[in-house]
Every structure is written in structure tokens, then in C-alpha cells.
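Query form — protein EmrB/QacA subfamily drug resistance transporter

QUESTION: What is the three-dimensional structure of this chain?
INPUT:
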Amino acid sequence: MPRPPATPLTPDERWTLAVTVLGSSMAFLDGTVVNVALSAVQRDLNATAGGATWVVNAYALMLAALILAGGALGDALGRRRVYGWGVALFALASLACGLAPSVGALIAARAVQGVGAALLVPGSLAMIGAVFDDARRGRGVGLWSAASSVMTLLGPVAGGALVDVGSWRWVFFINLPLAAAVLWLLPRVPETRAPGARPDWVGAAAVTLGLGGLAGALTRAGEAGWDALTLGGLGLALAAFGVFGWWEARTRAPMLPPALWRNRTFVGTNLLTLLLYGALGAVGLYLPLYLIGARGFSATAAGAALLPLSLLLATLSGTFGALADRHGPRLFLSAGPALAGAGFALLGALPGGYWTAVFPGAVVLGLGMALTVAPLSSTVMGSLGREQSGVASGVNNAVARAAGLIAVAALGLLLVGTYRAALDTRLRSAVGQASWRAGVVAQAPRLTDVRLPPGAPQAAQDAVRAAFADAFRTVALSAGLLGVLGGVAGGLILRRPPEDAGR
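ANSWER: The C-alpha cells for EmrB/QacA subfamily drug resistance transporter are given below.
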């Protein structure tokens, strides 16, 4: 029997889809495309490893900490209104990023960008869910996902091309016409809200301090060691997390209801998310630095390096999601993260050019992520029942972003320490007891922007590049271990069917 034709989208649904795709694409792009530009940013603004890390982490911190509060604010005040505020703030912050005269100014503008993203990202699916008819809601989400995936797929390549032919500043300026288009179209979208919703600002402030203190302490430790300021940052993080837990147990409208953590499947899938997406966030940041600084890739080529990952994720996620629905998620959430872990490790372990050193790891990583993403999302949302699926998805989204923030800082600490030791060893072998060797080793926090003295032999430059390759290999293997641990978590926690977990 032939399937009846799909009902055409209404004008409200078409405008909502256009606005949400354009707006959310800005936030998705700026979560990844900056990684490709980071080498140029570090060189032009004379940034250390800590400064370069915070260009990424300032955005991730504010988005991870405020995304749940941003969603609740949209529910309370109107999703279209808050979405518009987020787009406008994101655009203004993008302009400030592109004009930033120093790394400090860029970090501050990136933090404001993260606040804007926290206002607009949760509103995307919320507006689709509220505006689309029940019979077409799945279609609307699918179209949004497909269009957003294409934008995210092309983003790093386009960003690399902008860096190569122009300047890293154009990576931020490109957001301005997109934001203008969203704000022009936005009045065509109907306003929706959920009366009674209210943001948990105390919880948001506490988790911001906690995540910021932890990331700041780990980043500083790589440059200055475990001094009083570093330990003070750790103390601040612990105190803030303690306040967060105390507040969430007592407030009437918590952003993270404590009862969620009694559900075994919910806890397990978020642990898997923390491990896997932490590894992905760190490798996504440090791989372009490695390819550009140590392997001589152009920014465009570095941006295209993980295209196999994106293509496999886009083409196979639906198939593996359907298979997981039919056979259960346990096998997929065990094998997928473990396979992704193998891909992370391969990215740092294989010699040669792109096709022998990067492509195999990108393919294995892509297969692992494709096996994981759809079953993970489905299991997370199903872990709390249909009535709380939005809460489950929102928390998991926040965990994924917080995972990248923490892993970038923690593996960045490992990267700098390993790089410092490798620099000393390789320079000692290349130039012996040259008087300037210790000064070059002391520049390890500059990562790929180490400055050699005039007249240094080519062997010294080769040693610097080889030392950074050694350091990245350690990070890639550590990320691989995180992926494998995620697979172990998936296999152990889902040994019972999700519907029985937590009973």
C-alpha cells in the first residue's frame, strides 16, 4: 500500500525551521571552527597555551553552565524573545571577538558569546517542539538536525579557508550576516512559553564557579605549577560544587533535580557522555594545532582532516539508531565508544601523511561515534520517561559541553608537561648543550609557537616539531583510554533493559 504524501509544512513551521537552523548553526560552528583558527590566534596575539585554551574554554564554560537556565528563561519569558536576545548578544560578541586587540579581550568576548549561545541553543528545539504539529514534529526535528549537521560539517573547512586567505578574525565576522538574517526573520515565528517555569540562577552561578575554578586551576598548573593560586582555584571549585549540591537539594525549582541521580541508566549514560565527549573535545582542539604546527598542514587542510568523522556520523547515525531501537542499546554503547577510543589513539600513533596518519583514525573514530550518538541520545531521553525527556536531554547536553571544558584543561596540562620533557630530550639530542636550549624548553607553554634564536639549525626546528608530535601522541592515547572507559561504562550500566533501570 503506497505511503500517503507528507503534509506540507505551514508558514509558521517553515519560518521556525529557517530561524532555528540559522541561529543554532552559529553556536555549533563557533564551538568547533575556532579550533582551526587557534594557531593563527596564538601567533598574532602572542598567546600562551593557557591563553589559547581559554579562547576555547571561556565559550564552553558559559554555554555548559547556563544552557539549562537559558532554556528555563525562554520557557518563562517567551522562547522567541529570549532566542532573539541570544542571537543579538552572540552577534555583538562575535564583532568584539573579530576586533579583539589582545588575547584577554578575545577571551572576554568569547565568554559573552557563550552566554548568547546559552540563550539561543535550548530555544531551537523548544520552538520547533512548540510550533510544529504533533504529526510533523519528528519531521521538523529531523530537518533541523540534517541542516545543522551540514553547517557543522562544512564549518571547520570554511573556517580554515577564511584563515588561509584572509584572517582568523573573519571566523567571527561571518556570524554577523547570519545573525542579521535570523533577526529579520524572527518576527515571522509565533511566540510560545511555558507558564510557571523559572531559571535556577543560584545553581547556574555555583556551577559556573565550580567549572571555571576547576578548568582554571588545571590550565594554570600547566604553566605555573601547583602554586597557591592553582590550589586556590581547586578549592574554589570544590566549594562551589558543594554549594551547588546543597542548593539543588533545597530549592523548589532545581536546574538538576537530585532525584535524577537515583536512576542508574541516566547516571550511566551521562558518565559515558562525560568520558567520550571529553575525549572528543580535547582531540578536536589539539589535533588542528598538531597538524598545523607540527605537520605543516594549512588551516583549510586541518579543518578538513576530520571530514570522514562528520560524514560517517551524518550518514550512519540514523541506521545505527534504528538498529539500537530494535536490538537494545547495550552493544552500541559498549562497542561504539571503545571503537572511538581506538580512533583517538590512531590519530596520534600512525606515521606518514594525511592518508596514512590521519584518515584511518578519522574513519575509525567516525564509525565509533556513529555507533554511539543516536543510541545514546535515545537512551538518555528514555531513561526518565516521556514526561521528563526534555530535562534528560538538556542535562546530557550540558554534561557533554562541560566534559569538553574539563578535558581540554586536564589533557592540556598533560600536553604541556609532556611537551616540556620531550623538548628537553629532543633538543639535547639535536643541539647538545647549546646555551639557549633551556630558554627554548621554558617556552613549552607556547605550544606550537615556540621561538628559536636567530641562527638555530634546522635540526632544532625539527626537534621542536617532533617534540610536539610526541606530546600530542600522549594526549591522543589518553583520549583513547577515555573512550574505552566509556565503552566499559556503557556495557556495565546497561546490563539490564533501560525500562527496568532504577526500579
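ADDITIONAL NOTE: The first helix runs from residue 11 to 45.
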